[in-house]
Amino acid sequence: MAKFVQIRLNDMLKELGENEAKNILSSFICGINKDVEDFIRNKAIEFSKRGFSKTTLVYWVSDDEKEKELVGYFTIASKYICVSKDSVSKNLGKRLFAHGSYNEGTREYIVPAPLIGQLGKNYAGGNNYLISGSDLLTMALNKIVNIQEEIGGRFVYLECEEKERLIRFYEDNGFTVFGKRKKDRDEVGVDGDYLIQLLKYLK
């Protein structure tokens, strides 16, 4: 059976050099999300070098290992979240309190949580059919679980466009909406004025 191989962008840079890495990343196409495409082509290397976030590339490899295709990537950053007490259930609120702090004045839980900053499939050459969005998300979550086994923590969060199909996808994968934020000026590839924020408790 075909398999997936994860390659850290840092390792690619060390092995192939920046020019060759840029050449590989420039082939990434994600017409349904230009922000995902722009990030991997123009920002991922610089963000990785400066320690803002770390990107993992996912390759599909044929069973005879003669074929290899870049099918997607995800980017993780160290962050924290502010979650309104009124936006989550009591049970989830207790878990947030246990892993962070609570501000009585703002009625918010403040919790350290890795951010899945980018998550996208490569549509070049039909490579998007070689992997599902759920598989890609699971890989990102598993990496975060491994990190938290070393440093502690139980929460992860992400942000997505205010589109029903995207929100439903993440909710189907165990995420809960907790807020939204106004998009930044440089997020030109994002539709709408706001990004929906979702979190997940990792057991």
Topology:
Blueprint: E1 3-8, H1 9-16, H2 18-25, H3 34-42, H4 44-50, E2 54-61, E3 68-77, E4 80-84, H5 90-99, E5 101-103, E6 108-112, E7 115-121, H6 133-151, E8 155-161, H7 164-172, E9 176-182, E10 194-201
Parallel strand pairs: 7-8
Antiparallel strand pairs: 1-2, 2-3, 3-7, 4-6, 5-6, 8-10, 9-10
Helix pairs in contact: 1-2
What this model shows, in words?
This protein has 203 residues and is an alpha+beta fold. The protein has two domains: 1-74 and 118-131, no CATH class; 80-113 and 154-203, no CATH class. Helices cover 34% and strands 33% of the residues. It has seven helices and ten strands. The chain has helices at residues 9-16, 18-25, 34-42, 44-50, 90-99, 133-151, 164-172; strands at 3-8, 54-61, 68-77, 80-84, 101-103, 108-112, 115-121, 155-161, 176-182, 194-201. The strands form two sheets. It has a seven-stranded mixed sheet, with helices on both faces. Strands 4-6-5 form a three-stranded antiparallel sheet, covered by helices on one side. Helix 6 links the parallel strand 7 (115-121) and strand 8. The radius of gyration is 18 Å and the shape is globular. The protein starts with a strand and ends with a strand. The model has no long low-confidence stretch (mean pLDDT 95).
Mean pLDDT across all residues, rounded?
95
- Outline type: globular
* Low-confidence residue ranges: none
Note the main sheet. Answer: 7 strands, mixed
Number of strands: 10
Content-based structural category: alpha+beta
In sequence order, what are the helices and strands, one letter per element? EHHHHEEEHEEEHEHEE
Please bin the fraction of helical residues.
25-40%
| Adjacency order of strands in the biggest sheet | 1-2-3-7-8-10-9
> What is the domain total for the residues?
2
In what range is the share of β-strand residues? 25-35%
Q: What Rg do the Cα atoms give?
A: 18 Å
- Counted by DSSP, the helix tally is 7
Euclidean distance between termini CA atoms: 30 Å
